[in-house]
Amino acid sequence: MGGGGKRIHPLPYADPSLPVQPRSMDPSKDLAAYGYGSVAWKERMENWKQRQERMHQTGNDGGGDDGDDADLPLMDEARQQLSRKIPLPSSQINPYRMIIIIRLVVLGFFFHYRVMHPVNDAFALWLISVICEIWFAMSWILDQFPKWFPIERETYLDRLSLRFDKEGQPSQLAPIDFFVSTVDPLKEPPLVTTNTVLSILSVDYPVDKVSCYVSDDGAAMLTFEALSETSEFAKKWVPFCKRYNIEPRAPEWYFQQKIDYLKDKVAANFVRERRAMKREYEEFKVRINALVAKAQKVPEEGWTMQDGTPWPGNNVRDHPGMIQVFLGQSGGLDCEGNELPRLVYVSREKRPGYNHHKKAGAMNALVRVSAVLTNAPYLLNLDCDHYINNSKAIKEAMCFMMDPLLGKKVCYVQFPQRFDGIDRHDRYANRNVVFFDINMKGLDGIQGPIYVGTGCVFRRQALYGYDAPKTKKPPSRTCNCWPKWCFCCCCFGNRKQKKTTKPKTEKKKLLFFKKEENQSPAYALGEIDEAAPGAENEKAGIVNQQKLEKKFGQSSVFVTSTLLENGGTLKSASPASLLKEAIHVISCGYEDKTDWGKEIGWIYGSVTEDILTGFKMHCHGWRSIYCIPKRVAFKGSAPLNLSDRLHQVLRWALGSIEIFFSNHCPLWYGYGGGLKFLERFSYINSIVYPWTSIPLLAYCTLPAICLLTGKFITPELNNVASLWFMSLFICIFATSILEMRWSGVGIDDWWRNEQFWVIGGWR
């Protein structure tokens, strides 16, 4: 792994809980009931269920093996894929592609006419208009071609449960660490953050597999106290959510719903408990709002904790690292005596003179802390104003991540952003439906969607800068199928060359560990000569350990965790020692002279760190997945006025310009790696679009200048020129109509997007 070495990956997935065993067949049963070699599986599954019901009703005794045979269709179901790709119907996508090709041809004739027919008496106006039109055409190409292969996906949660989460057996689902980031509690209300945390703690996932880390980059005692209150309220809220299977599991939004909350609720005491829980939540809100009111006036001597000691974060720019575990193994049980997910407060160390890299630095600190304390193989990051709207969203992501065929090459699963509180007409295009329902579906058919900063499930190993596992190609065609005379001409020279170039000594990449009893491996991968003696092997292991520490930082516990592809922590380590190590990895100087922010974790260099981070992963050959569940996975808050919306657009544009001038610019970075050609188009489009504001401003100004000067940007049109102009306009409208047809985007959303494209360009 370290030092440029190749990464070793485990053997293909094989579920030990589903052995292939010889089975006795009951002559009285139809062979189709066994489900193997199925073609129309759903129909046969229903037939099998109906047959079982009839046999039970008529008292048909199927023999002693009947109980064992009843599980066979379920075993077949558990072996099937956890998700599938759904290409769009050819009747929708083929006309769309055809009109794109026609539009390209028409563009060629259009520009031929424009360039070959200058306006001599208004040459400057003509030249500016042609340059602007060429830029618009190039921008359209960069935006259009990544949408050439749009797809949709479907997941099978029942198969995931059959394979990894069987009732009555320990869950085999992979652990996951949740990251929530916040900075200023006065700008990001604590009540919003606590609702996000509560929705995480009550997610429909095994409790022992969930850990929630909250990054407080403002070191605010208000956030700390709010999380303390949240941990107490969670002891009542989490069991209530799971007992009655309510949605969403953020209490603020659950109690605001204007729906029939009695629908599908058959428990007699549900109404009584819901009223009691609503009273509990109102009291919780009062306590949170009291904390906010108290925080408005900061004492001159600073905040003090309950034991009288000063709050370590009184100086926001100069304070030590802080970690507090509120819930988990040592944080108490819920009101029903069950374990709760782990809840951890993290505030990284801040000192003057250090560049802390804003959100990207905070996320990298959470990556290291979580690796030391829990080291789940998967991570999910959420902004503090995005709550989980679908409690099964994590299982939706695991249908891709844990798929034995697809999962190993998936670096992250991105969910679309959806928002609350937007006006019905969405006059500021906050929903961004065109991007999330058109562009992202197109990218999913190439190498996957770009990372948009929140609502994303990551593979931890991909964040560590490793290359994607290589898929073994089938053996190439040999000349055995050709006549013997062809062998002499075509193949002899190549085979001879292969024999002569065979190396004399072969080296094998081996795992070299220093193990203790009940302890995970403590050393790294290394290229070790098979014939090397044991002492040299140990020396090589130490050298590789040093290389990894130079890459990941001076923490042996964290370096060890990076070698565990399936996660897990040191069994022999005490909580106190792990906490001490966690404090060490969030120190402000830990990243000095390491690859953090360059090759590992969230990448530094832009305020839009999400684009850079996803781009680096795709350059390493990973692919991403776009998951749109039937029930929206996450919901967040959007800017409510034009000023905030324009400020958001400006921030995104500045981030793209920073990437444009950086070493990681997609125009020249990553060639020869794993980034696909059309995927690069999308990343180039994401960093050049801010420059479109210049030709857009110029082009929108030209009509006024033409009216004032009495000149025009085109000469008098003949019939052929009119044909090309009309054809281009028709192609533009046809492209948009066909795009809305296959994507399901409405005309209102499309028009708002076009409007705000012009408004944002002028901004």
UniProtKB/TrEMBL annotation:
Name of the featured protein: cellulose synthase (UDP-forming)
Comp. bias (Basic and acidic residues): 47-56
Active site: 217, 610
Family statement: Belongs to the glycosyltransferase 2 family. Plant cellulose synthase subfamily.
Gene Ontology molecular function: cellulose synthase (UDP-forming) activity; zinc ion binding
Main location as per UniProt: membrane
Primary enzyme class: transferase
Binding of UDP-alpha-D-glucose, residues: 181, 187-188, 217, 358
